[in-house]
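Why show two proteins at once? Because comparison is the fastest way to build intuition. When a single record is shown, students tend to memorize it. When two are placed side by side, the eye starts asking what differs. So, the first record is below.
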Amino acid sequence: MASAAERLWPTNAPRWTGSNRSVNSMRRGDVVMVAAAGDDGKPRPAEVVQTDALPDSHASVIICQMSSELADAPDFRITIDAAPENGLRETSQVMADKPVTVRRERISTIIGRLNAAEMARVNTAIALVMGLAD
């Protein structure tokens, strides 16, 4: 029987093929599959937002989860179109207003990566949400 992640992102779906890095070498901007607390274990895509300065051995990872339920909140919900490079199957939004820290083991795979323009929009949204733009 297929896992929840395989049902949401089937193995025959277009995938980012730019790297075969393991989740032990995640970098800021990677799109990963994660089962975060409060989601009933439902895997969903998320963007790694923590600095690359933290060691790969660090026990946790800061992410912003993504949702395909689009909200009209362009200042802190950054819309990302689905593309093979980011691994998304449908247009989704990075929820910059809901960063969370998860245990590294909760992340199952890297499915893609945001491009530089998308990352710049996410960075601006996080700065706004965290009060760093004040």
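Second record. Ask yourself what differs from the first in the token line.
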Amino acid sequence: MKNFSKKILGIFLVLTSSLAVAQFPSKPIKIVVPYQAGNSLEPIVRALADEMTQTLKQPVLIEYKPGASTTIGAAYTASSPPDGHTLFVNAASFLISAQLMAKLPYDPKTAFVPISGLTEMPHVLIAPTSAPYKNAKDFLAYAKSNGDKISYGSFGNASSGHLGFERIKKQFGFNATHIPYKGNEGLQDILAGRLDCMLNDLPIVVPFVKEGKIQALAIASEKRDPSLPDVPTFEEATGTPFLSKSWFGILVRSDTPLSIRNTLNASITSALKKPEIYKKLLDLGLKPTPSTPEAFSEFMAQESKKFAEAIAFANVRMD
């Protein structure tokens, strides 16, 4: 009788799980953003949520869970049911935290699986308009002669902007003092002339460059961006290529059923490929990057390796 009851329970659980998969989505979907509202990611997440609401016939909501280098949002997602109704927006910080933080409330290697890439945006080397250098080549010459006096800002310790600038220092051979800021507060010091330089996201800096409030010395991409057509790439400005960017993608819990993950991938990639959404995001300096889960997984592996190298040679430690 006891074994018979176990068999009945097992059959019930299988049927219940199959029914849940068949009815997906059965309730509103949450996109967990591990940053404060108003960040450079917001336009693409809102566009994605609106489009997914139409295709999946359920409300898709944005839930902000900022703090602790994205680990608060990741932990929240890891503790949610593995039913595809909670999506996590991951970024460079997610990979960097996994390498620098000894204790996390989830296993970053096994807790999540990728669904798709979302977007990427190149970093731009910016400086105050009052700075004595007016292009990247002059900046490098100045930095090599005045490295002990140069300070650069970032989005925070061990952020993509921090590690990106450490890679610039190593590649071009100069020193500079790192000043980590909370979020994008460093931009205010660039505007006020209190900070010498920093790498910042293209969409953030575009309006300030166009209004003549800051200088854009070079863009860390393979080619110029239409939103700042007069700003050269590092290769154009210095003769040496240099690439650095912020990027975002979507993860879910690793035990989410495959059919649900496939449904989510189809909804996300079709939204990002819609011509009107694609163009709108490009105009904002955001390049949509819809992908297969496998392609996004390979991309993250390459990025993780690059970050590990920068962490090692710059001796970066998490606060």
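One difference worth noting in the second protein: Strands lie at 29-33, 60-64, 86-91, 112-128, 151-154, 177-180, 197-201, 214-219, 245-253, 287-288.
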